[in-house]
Amino acid sequence: MNIRIDYEVDEAYLPALVEFPFDKNLEEWKAAGVSPIMMRRGDSRHQVLFVQSKLASIPCKFAIKETTPELARRELENYRKLRELDIQTLAPVGVVERKEGEAPIETPAGVMYQQNATAYLVTLLEDAVLPESVLFGYRFQQEARREIFDAIAELFAKCHAKNVYWGDASLDNLLIKFVREEHTLGKRRKLVALLADAETTEIKPSLSARMKEADIEFFCESMLWLDEEFSKRGNARDKNIALADIAYLRERYDALTKIWDAHKRFDRLTNFNSERHFGRFRKASHADTLLKHLEEHKWYLSERLKTPVSMRDAAIDWYGNYFLPIQELLKQSRFAEFFPDKTELEVYLEIMENKYYLSEKQKRDVGLSYAIQDFAKRFGVEKTFVSSLKTAFKTIIDITKEHAKSIPR
User: Fold this and answer.
1) CB-CB contact of 208 with 214 (8 Å)
2) Quick check: pTM over 0.70?
3) Based on the domain organization, do 328 and 263 belong to the same domain?
């Protein structure tokens, strides 16, 4: 039989992939001399094999999924679109297709011939990951379980905020990755949930509340199904634990959805990608606080330039000329010592929120310098560090003073 192998893959990985026997089904690879990577994985409708590149020049691992050409290309395209939306997914490498001529198909109209083809979706095998179904079987303490569900709720909320309908959301279709996140103190461990099966994913112009609920409901049901599976294997859990996990997941999803909705509102009003510039806001109110400040900055620029300035131009100017220098100065100061669990943006926004609160309370603009002192006092910050905060915020303090001078008395 004439067999043809077509490689539609990232050229960087082509030399490694041509070393594998794609002329055979995955179940035959071991007999053909391929040593698969042995690792735990969730259930799958398809045959999947984990392999290591044979080339020292390409030191990577692949997950290879055997499927049809149509499904492989659909899933590949879904992965690419999801990653453009900054959704955490597996990293797609491409599709390898094996064509073996035409196969006869019996139909009511007689024998028809159809292309006999098998496709392999290739993704990079993530390091430091476990299937959530494996993690779920461990007897984690409540705090550890909640950290896992925080990561899952984050993935769901972000997908839905970006109009992504999962369609087959279950524990078997995601992975939990242990990452080291850059932080002011250096690096810290963080759990991230990866969408690991994009076959049924759809990206819509908008998502109805009903579709979002269907995704969450199906996922919660999968948690109960998995509990039943563990019970059959002799690893039963108290059902109240599973119900508490579901309640916590929904609670975190609702809270994170409000934050992502705030991102969407902010981006719509400013035409500025808040996630890529700041990461996720810690609170939904942070979007409103930053919008108020950008409105003030827009007014300031318009007055200074004697011409109307758009919100996007104001956001770009503020980000480059004010926030980035503040961020850099805070990193060089003792910021991390006093605020180990806060980002520079979070401290900035909380100081601005404090300024608005104090001004409302005292029926006057109290000024940024006063707001910084009050904020530092509430956090028990040493006086020596207050000067560092003021130095970082100096330009904005000067601007607020100019604002005060321009207000009619």
Assistant:
1) no
2) yes
3) no
